[in-house]
Design a protein that fits this description.
It is a single chain. The protein is of the alpha/beta class and about 240 residues long. It is built from 5 helices and 11 strands. The protein is globular, with a radius of gyration of 18 Å. The termini are far apart. The N terminus is likely disordered.
């Protein structure tokens, strides 16, 4: 019987087995101030395939990482706060959305090129009790709709809800969020680019992707945007 190992965090959103979706959610309280759950869980897909019959959730303190390599698409992986939207402090729910200078221009250009765009964001406000997961999801949904009005299609948002002291592997610059995107969408990390306002974003991109860029208070300048578009085109 084929078995794949999955380091379990707080939830498993959707895994595809031969085109069949498998829904699973870790039956733990939403998010505490402690590390990722360490209790082993087993999930069997309802539709078996020739190569996967069971997924084993290991007991290591980690977040969802399915070790499948399917590298085909170069992507732009963008931080959320102070990279796409101006950070007013632990934003959630119905907080105002104000775009960072140059963000819409870059994202629209990448969308026009046909490269997928993803958001990868640290949201420790959940663990700190500043806002609930539902409030974060509501803000993200509003942001997605707003971006779509500019013909910008963000394919997915991945996030780390943990406190920095938890030392989880999904908090940037650790690679957990990148692995989630690779395993869900088959992107090529080696040809993808990360951009954000913190050094951790730059480190993440330079360590695990083709490149990483850190913006400053001036936003996404024409110079940085040009470099990113060039990197995505492998020039």
């Amino acid at each position: 019987m084929a078995t794949l190992a999955l380091n379990s965090g707080l939830w498993v959103r959707r895994l595809l087995f031969g085109g069949s979706p498998v829904q699973g959610r870790y039956p733990a309280s939403e998010v505490n101030n402690g590390p990722c759950p360490e209790k082993p869980v087993h999930l069997r897909p309802p539709h078996h395939t020739s190569f996967i019959n069971e997924i084993e959730f290991k007991t290591e303190p980690a977040c969802p990482i399915l070790s499948i390599t399917s590298l085909s698409k170069s992507a732009l992986i963008v931080d959320r706060d102070d990279t796409i939207v101006v950070d007013s402090g632990y934003m959630s729910g119905d907080d105002e959305i104000v775009f960072v200078s140059g963000a819409l221009d870059l994202l629209a250009s990448v969308s026009a090129m046909g490269n997928p765009i993803f958001i990868a964001t640290n949201q420790s406000g959940v663990a700190r009790g500043m806002f609930a997961l539902n409030d974060m999801h509501r803000f993200n949904a509003r942001l997605m709709r707003s971006l779509q009005s500019y013909n910008i299609n963000v394919q997915d948002i991945v996030f780390c809800p943990h406190h920095p002291r938890d030392k989880c592997i999904c908090r940037k610059p650790m690679p957990g969020l990148l692995y989630q995107l690779r395993n869900r969408h088959g992107i090529s990390l080696e040809s993808s680019v990360v951009i954000g306002d913190k050094e951790s974003d730059k480190i993440l991109g330079k360590t695990y992707c083709r490149n990483g860029f850190q913006i400053n208070k001036h936003g996404i300048t024409v110079s940085i945007a040009t470099k990113i578009l060039s990197e995505l085109n492998h020039r």
